[in-house]
Amino acid sequence: MYFAKAGNQQETFSACIHAVLLKDSQSTMIPSPLADYMEFIPDWDAYVSHLRLSLPVYFRINTLKASREVVFSTLDSEGIRPEATAVKDLFKLGATGQARATVSYHLGYIYPQALSSALPVIALAPRPGEMVLDLCAAPGGKATHMAQVMGDSGIIIANDRKLGRLTALLSNVKRLGITNTVVTHYRGEHFPVTRSFDRVLVDAPCSGDGKFRLGKDDEILHLKKGRTFLPAIQKALIQRAFDLLRPGGTMVYSTCTLNPQENEEVVSHLLKKRDGRLLSWVPPIDWEPGLTTFKGRGYHESCVLCRRFYPHKIDSVGFFVAKIFRPI
Amino acid sequence: MISSRVIYLVRKGRVAESAGLKVIRCGLPFVRRAGIYLKPTTVMVQRFGDLADKNVVDLEPFDIRRLLHGGEIVIDLETDSGYVIVRSGRNTWGVALYLLPGRLLPRFPKGMRQAFE
Ligand SMILES: C[S@@+](CC[C@H](N)C(=O)[O-])C[C@H]1O[C@@H](n2cnc3c(N)ncnc32)[C@H](O)[C@@H]1O
Q1: Which ligand 1 atom lies nearest to the CA of residue A145?
Q2: Ligand 1 centre from A257 Cα, in Å?
């Protein structure tokens, strides 16, 4: 295996294509940005092989609308035998399952989502009765999960900047029968600091490369175009989220990208600007610690307390989760 | 919370803490005015319908399918004309309109009907 990396004698070549040449039977090129991640992704070959598979479908059961028993007997009556996972209330439907075509979906018993999408909520661990803000909430996977963890009590302000995506959020909150959620429409970085929250979630807009899959010719599928200045937006969002926390409150910053510039660099920026502390937590599935360097750049030393989740290790979308405390 | 046609169910207590924000929606649509009747929303009865002990009709799965396909059911219920909660086994599906003497008309949301066409 050969890695063409900027900053060495292959610079001209790599600046053009940023590619990894894999010396396997097909001598494959893995396109940027994924190629850059060879520096830190464990079991690179397994990662690349996994990129060529389709991701399994998972779903969360909604215990607000029915007991586990009712949900399972309804799924069973549709011939669905979900597989348990290490994450509470999350089940695997299989590689080709169609969660949205089920009776259980239309009765609001299930929410299709990635296994890893549950992790930010597990890290944030909102409690019944609390006041919680979800700054980038649409289409509502994490907001509705939080409502469930909170027993539909307290209050969740579920905010998003994009009106179009708020429609999906409103419909999911309704479908799951949630009463404790108030939906608002602000640019997160301008959310009014007129009140403070017990917990804040920033599930930030990102390049989404944790979801990437490779097609037949190893082209990247699901590539989002026209996303610029993401780190700048992410830094503004994480800072505003911290300012919205009450002293003693907890926040989570999460993304579905593996890119350190959208992850550890954003967290380091916050720790430079504000007196926040990263907190350790133990995820229920395979994880790696956050990075303290990438491409020669150093990040805050406590970034090892961030958690990274790699697709080939968890058989789901790659994720990044940082749990941050605002001291009293 | 009451808008012109819909009454929303909100959590008592902390909801006031959203005052002054640009709110798009607050809580769960509970009932809406539909002609001369108050129509409980599908999402409300799916969440709380198992607590109801009046104006409920229990149907067999094939009757549910019939309603989903837009068909009506001939049935005699001990109630006046108006909306009733539709259950089958342990699942609460939504509401239907009962009209005397003995017609039950489907009132499931479009998305739900389309999914089972
Ligand atoms: C990763 S998605 C959130 C997914 C969501 N948390 C869930 O679990 O379903 C990021 C969201 O951020 C929203 N967004 C983008 N820029 C934003 C901004 N400046 N302020 C608030 N939301 C923003 C996008 O519209 C998108 O819905």
Answers
A1: 8
A2: 14
